[in-house]
Amino acid sequence: MSLKSLLAAAALSVSVLPALAEDAKLTIMDPYARASTPSSKSGAIFLEVMNAGPADRLIGASTPAAGQTMLHTHKEDANGVIKMIHVDEGFEVPEGSTLELKRGGKHVMLMGLTGPLEQGDTLPLTLIFEQAGEISVEVPVDLKRKPGSHTGHGDH
Question: How far apart are CA 84 and CA 42, in angstroms?
Fold first, then answer.
């Protein structure tokens, strides 16, 4: 195989890979987790994803602070009961928009906490996007965060 053929093959293989997180136009803003009690088995993380680039999709998340990390939202059933549900397909982040993960709405659910989430602590979170790949952030634990502060969060 000639050098020209090798270079062409390499260029083709690179063009089909998703953009690396550092090349993406996604900005993670105002992440926080609510503090938990020592006996809590679950928790939640809230944040905003600002997208200054092409459309993308948040398809997953992970943290060592929980046995399982899922994308959740709230949905009202036919009886008017609001339930939390897992969202397999993730959350769309359209071009030029902001995805809000907030109390009472879309959020990152932490199941099987490995320890309590204590006020003032931080925990690592890796967000997984369809195009941008993985973006890691440090999430402060903040029990004092009030609904409506910083990002207009409602009650969870």
Answer: 13
